[in-house]
Amino acid sequence: MAAVPAPPPPLLASHAAVRATASDVSRFRGARLAGDHPPQVAALRRGDWVKLICGASFEDAADVRNLSLVYTLAGVDCIDCAADASVVGAVNEGIDVAASIIPAVQRPWVMVSVNDDCRDLHFRKAEFDPEDCPPDCSKPCEKVCPADAISLESIMVGGEHTRSDPLHGKLKGGVLTERCYGCGRCLPVCPYDRIRAVSYVRDPITTSELLKRNDVDAIEIHTTGKGTDTFDALWNSFSESINNVKLVAVSLPDIGESTVDFMNVLYAIMEPHLQGYNLWQLDGRPMSGDIGRGATRETVSFAIHMASVPERPPGFYQLAGGTNSYTIDCLKKAGLFQSMTFPGTTTSETISSQQALIGGIAYGGYARKIIGRTLRKIPAQFGRVHIEDHPDHLLEALQDALSLVGPVKGYPALSSMK
Ligand code: SF4
Ligand code: SF4
């Protein structure tokens, strides 16, 4: 008598629709693996690399875990997170859960983000003391925060309830530090100027230890373009650990005509100790992708600027800062989407290495926003949410993630999603 196959574990049994969708993604990607390169590098060469940015300062481990799970199933190449051990653990846990649903899923590279000085806007947190707030404030800070990082409650003072007499109450709560990623939108809306931004620099010793972990594959160094000394010092502090990672990214703003000279100085600093791949993140309008269509213009302009300068340093180039669902169309209009040639030139000027001018796109605020909509639908009584415990929500989040990742990757209409 034939043996009865064992039933699938409960997690797998409840995810038939998710498995069907993510398996289509996995098969499509498996068929595209290229040559001797790691799949992530093959994606950069083709121009279809996608990175999820969890946020250099975003440290809510529960959200980071769920985001990592969903975007791993959607097929991102890399997940960029805060250089913090618990956040790195959360990213890897999300990837592990994705692998338990689709064993053939390609694990994205895990990247930690650091800064070389405190002027980079990604490395700050909002702060205020709610005791200093007028009790009748309409709390515009709470409404404007895209990360739900401000939570305020009116409380009674001396037995009177603030709802009936707000001037005799007070506010409690404030900024949820682990959720604040420093976007700064709360700062100008406070009518009483109570909110301040506190900047910081990631500790290089802690970062060096993270780089030695097997579950960290890449580092990104944010620099402001205001000088190279701090970059030099930080780079030297990584001399013992930098070659444990496969990819070194440098994130920088467009500083005009001197941008390429600045990048070439940075490359000269890195080159003696650079054994893996390197990437330049063209940071257009930081932390603004969720605002709307226009936010993506600056990063695409930055890409056009870079493409026009033949003396730019070696490495892959990737967009970030204001990226959203409009970015691909803008890049196509500029003739830079997966283009191997300079726009407007003849094919005889094709780049000899056959590497796309723009290797791909990183999505941050917009990627988090579209998944956040689904996460917020899960009833609050579930406390710390594991999205895989809610298969319908996981499927919805995966479909949203695919709407962003799919156009870059060129996924065909997935039969499982029809
Ligand atoms: S800086 Fe941005 S993320 Fe942080 S509390 Fe203010 S609005 Fe929210
Ligand atoms: S807007 Fe300003 S004063 Fe009002 S609750 Fe927020 S921080 Fe306090």
UniProtKB/TrEMBL annotation:
<dbReference type="InterPro" id="IPR050157">
    <property type="entry name" value="PSI_iron-sulfur_center"/>
</dbReference>
<keyword id="KW-0411">Iron-sulfur</keyword>
<dbReference type="GO" id="GO:0046872">
    <property type="term" value="F:metal ion binding"/>
</dbReference>
<dbReference type="InterPro" id="IPR057431">
    <property type="entry name" value="LdpA_Fe-S-bd"/>
</dbReference>
<protein>
    <recommendedName>
        <fullName>4Fe-4S ferredoxin-type domain-containing protein</fullName>
    </recommendedName>
</protein>
<dbReference type="InterPro" id="IPR017896">
    <property type="entry name" value="4Fe4S_Fe-S-bd"/>
</dbReference>
<keyword id="KW-0479">Metal-binding</keyword>
<keyword id="KW-0004">4Fe-4S</keyword>
<feature type="domain" description="4Fe-4S ferredoxin-type">
    <location>
        <begin position="171"/>
        <end position="200"/>
    </location>
</feature>
<dbReference type="Pfam" id="PF12617">
    <property type="entry name" value="LdpA_C"/>
</dbReference>
<dbReference type="GO" id="GO:0051539">
    <property type="term" value="F:4 iron, 4 sulfur cluster binding"/>
</dbReference>
<keyword id="KW-0408">Iron</keyword>
<dbReference type="InterPro" id="IPR021039">
    <property type="entry name" value="Fe-S-bd_prot_LdpA_C"/>
</dbReference>
<dbReference type="Pfam" id="PF25160">
    <property type="entry name" value="LdpA_Fe-S-bd"/>
</dbReference>
<dbReference type="InterPro" id="IPR017900">
    <property type="entry name" value="4Fe4S_Fe_S_CS"/>
</dbReference>
<feature type="domain" description="4Fe-4S ferredoxin-type">
    <location>
        <begin position="124"/>
        <end position="155"/>
    </location>
</feature>
